[in-house]
C-alpha cells in the first residue's frame, strides 16, 4: 500500500483502536460541519433575498428624496449654506448589535433616532415651502434608515459567504483526504496483523511437523546388533523392513516427488537423507 495514502503508523492492536476512535471523532465532526454549512446556506439565502428587496426599496426612496430636495431648491433656492452653518449633533445614530449565526460572529447595524437632540431646522421654510421641506426631511430620514439596513445586510452576506466557503473547504478536506487516509491506515494495520498471524501459524505448523518426524524416526530406529554372524542376517532383514516402513510412513507424512533415501553408518544407525524438507506441506498433510 502506498504510504502517501495512509498515516505512518505501526501495525498493532493499540494503533488499530486509536485509528478506529479517531475515525469516530472525524465522522462526528464531519456531520457537525455539514449541518453548520447547511444552516449558514439557509441564513445566507434569507439575507440575500432581504438584501435584494432592500436594495430595490432604497433606490425608490432615494429617488423620492432627491425629487423633494429639487422641489425645495426650486421654491427656496440653494439651502446648502444654511445647512452647513447649523450642523450640530446627529439625530439618527447607528447602533451595533452582535449576532451569532451557527458559530459565525456577525454585526448588524440598526438606525436609532435620538429624541434628546433638538431639530435645528424645525422652523425652516415657514416663510415659503415649509410643507415641502418637511417632506424632504422625512424622505431623507427614511433613506438613512434603509441605507443602514442595506449596509448591515451586505456585511452579513459577506461574512456568511466567507464562513460558508471555509466550512465547505473543511468538509471537503475531511471527506476527500482525512477519511480515506484513516480507512487506508485501518486496512493496512488489519492486513499486517493477518500476515503476522499466518506467519506464526505456518511457523508452528513447521515446528510440529519437524517434531512428529523426529519422534517417528526415533521410534523406527533399530537397535544395535549384539550377536554372532548368524544373527547379522536377521538383524539386516529387520533393518531393511524397518527402513521400508520408515520410507512408507515418510511418504505419507510428506508426499514429495523425491523418495526419502536412508543410509547406515558403521554402527547400524539409520541416517535419513532430508531430500524433501516440509516447506510445501498443506494443512491436510499434517497429523494435527
UniProtKB/TrEMBL annotation:
InterPro entries membership: V_ATPase_D (IPR002699)
Domain of life: Eukaryota
Keyword Transport: yes
Molecular function via GO: proton-transporting ATPase activity, rotational mechanism
Keyword DNA damage: no
UniProtKB keywords: Ion transport, Transport
Function: Subunit of the V1 complex of vacuolar(H+)-ATPase (V-ATPase), a multisubunit enzyme composed of a peripheral complex (V1) that hydrolyzes ATP and a membrane integral complex (V0) that translocates protons. V-ATPase is responsible for acidifying and maintaining the pH of intracellular compartments and in some cell types, is targeted to the plasma membrane, where it is responsible for acidifying the extracellular environment.
Name under which the protein is recorded: V-type proton ATPase subunit D-like
Organism: Galleria mellonella (Greater wax moth)
